[in-house]
């Protein structure tokens, strides 16, 4: 009897016990119902490794997102193109799920990622980019950032003061008179002012021109014989040749030729703004344009200034003035082409250095900007070389050429409709504020070169 009861209770307990095998099969079937497509990266179409979730909700492998960020230069989703906010982080829950469900695949892919140096560099650059974002938010008023922001603020104040000086002073307007007024209408004072612009040696002949009341019409009738005889008595042959050479330019142009930056800007408003932006964006193409279309007036003086001919110690100032109108020698062409190909911004700096006595602050801004642009160009070439993308240089050069030609053509069409005030704003902005902006770009390049995507 007791045996029967125990047997019945055992049977009852066995019947009431849950079927673990059935539960295990149900769990297994549930796991098998999960499709691998739900854990695929939409960039590489493989199992997600370190899945990173963007603000739009899409998930990608972290190295795929880093490669996309490096190649596209954009902080946007590769699938829906929605920009992400902040810096994307790894989805820990999704990472643990993929590690458990597809452990073999994930381990294999991680080993492949670590063995690929290109992917490792991209991940490092991407992470440093995120670190910089976080650092800029928390420490934007501390350390080096505060120091450079103070420097940029001081330079901005200097640039504003220089702009106010040029707009408020009447120096530029006084220089504009002779380059816009016909020679035949010049007064005696204006003729003397034109003569003084030839150089310090011209001071010797100021009194004869004043005593004879030489105006514009008399100036146009002067020749070699008149200058040699009294009352002018310019017996120095080099002095006489310099005066006649400049007088020939005046007769050809009908007005006084520009001899400094402000006079050139007043005489060629549209061209000066075009050259200012074009030399900054593409100095090689701009100099080639001047060689083709503005050889004698702009390119030739530029070349003689940057690559002067060999001068003797006893050569006078007026002789060097005449040499700027001659054809360059082979030595000058060789020096110019080397600088043109390797250091084009150095040519601009040397040209500004020659004008240092006339444009004190402006020349310094141009020289600093040329140095900064040279550094930025060197950093860009270094990134191409270190990231094995130097073979893309011809394609980038072609794209740059097409962009410059299209923008130049659009500028030529729209320029006649731009008001003079807007022109001056763009001109002075590019002249004085470009160095301040480029200082910040150079600091970013030198401190964190890996974070700069090409």
Automatic annotation (TrEMBL):
CDD domains for the chain: RING-HC_BAR, SAM_BAR
Keyword Membrane among record annotations: yes
SMART domains to which the protein is assigned, alphabetical: RING, SAM
GO cellular component: endoplasmic reticulum membrane; nucleus
Location of the region described as Disordered in the Swiss-Prot/TrEMBL record: 1-31
Membrane topology (UniProt): Multi-pass membrane protein
Domain RING-type: 41-81
Location within or outside the cell: Endoplasmic reticulum membrane
Catalytic reactions on record: S-ubiquitinyl-[E2 ubiquitin-conjugating enzyme]-L-cysteine + [acceptor protein]-L-lysine = [E2 ubiquitin-conjugating enzyme]-L-cysteine + N(6)-ubiquitinyl-[acceptor protein]-L-lysine
Gene Ontology process terms (BP): apoptotic process; proteasome-mediated ubiquitin-dependent protein catabolic process
InterPro entries with a match to the protein in the record: SAM (IPR001660), SAM/pointed_sf (IPR013761), Znf_RING (IPR001841), Znf_RING/FYVE/PHD (IPR013083), Znf_RING_CS (IPR017907)
Subunit structure: Interacts with CASP8, BCL2 and BCL2L1 through SAM domain and also with HIP1, IFT57, ESRRBL1 and BCAP31. Interacts with NGFR; this interaction inhibits NF-kappa-B and JNK-related signaling pathways.
Record's protein name: Bifunctional apoptosis regulator
Organism the protein comes from: Lates calcarifer (Barramundi)
């Amino acid at each position: 009897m007791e045996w029967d009861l125990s047997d019945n209770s055992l049977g009852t307990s066995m019947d009431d016990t849950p079927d673990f095998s059935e539960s295990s099969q149900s769990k297994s079937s549930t796991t098998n119902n999960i499709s691998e497509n739900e854990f695929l990266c939409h960039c590489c179409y493989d199992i997600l490794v370190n899945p990173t979730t963007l603000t739009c909700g899409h998930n990608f492998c972290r190295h795929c997102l880093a490669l996309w960020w490096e190649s596209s230069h954009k902080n946007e989703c590769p699938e829906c193109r929605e920009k992400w906010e902040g810096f994307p982080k790894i989805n820990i829950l999704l990472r643990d799920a993929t590690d458990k469900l597809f452990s073999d695949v994930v381990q294999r892919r991680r080993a492949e990622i670590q063995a690929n140096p290109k992917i490792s560099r991209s991940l490092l650059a991407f992470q440093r980019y995120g670190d910089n974002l976080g650092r800029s938010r928390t420490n934007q008023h501390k350390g080096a950032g505060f120091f450079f922001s103070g420097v940029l603020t001081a330079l901005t104040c200097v640039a504003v003061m220089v702009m106010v000086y040029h707009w408020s002073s009447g120096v530029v307007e006084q220089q504009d008179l002779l380059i816009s007024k016909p020679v035949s209408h010049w007064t005696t004072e204006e003729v003397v002012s034109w003569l003084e612009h030839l150089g310090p040696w011209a001071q010797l002949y100021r009194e004869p021109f004043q005593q004879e009341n030489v105006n514009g019409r008399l100036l146009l009738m002067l020749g070699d014989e008149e200058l040699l005889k009294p009352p002018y008595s310019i017996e120095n042959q080099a002095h006489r040749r310099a005066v006649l050479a400049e007088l020939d330019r005046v007769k050809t142009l009908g007005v006084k030729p520009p001899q400094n930056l402000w006079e050139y800007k007043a005489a060629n408003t549209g061209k000066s703004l075009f050259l200012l932006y074009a030399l900054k964006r593409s100095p090689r193409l701009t100099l080639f344009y001047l060689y083709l279309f503005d050889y004698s007036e702009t390119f030739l003086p530029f070349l003689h200034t940057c690559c002067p001919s060999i001068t003797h110690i006893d050569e006078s100032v007026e002789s060097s003035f005449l040499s700027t109108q001659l054809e360059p020698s082979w030595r000058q062409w060789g020096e110019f082409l080397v600088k043109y190909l390797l250091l084009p911004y150095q040519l601009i700096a040397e040209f500004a250095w020659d004008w240092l006595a006339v444009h004190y602050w402006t020349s310094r801004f141009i020289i600093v900007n040329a140095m900064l642009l040279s550094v930025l160009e060197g950093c860009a070439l270094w990134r191409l070389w270190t990231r094995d993308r130097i073979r893309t240089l011809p394609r980038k050069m072609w794209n740059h050429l097409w962009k410059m030609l299209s923008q130049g053509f659009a500028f030529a069409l729209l320029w006649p409709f731009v008001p003079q005030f807007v022109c001056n704003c763009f001109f002075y902005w590019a002249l004085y504020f470009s160095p301040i902006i480029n200082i910040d770009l150079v600091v970013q390049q030198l401190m964190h070169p890996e974070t700069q995507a090409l």
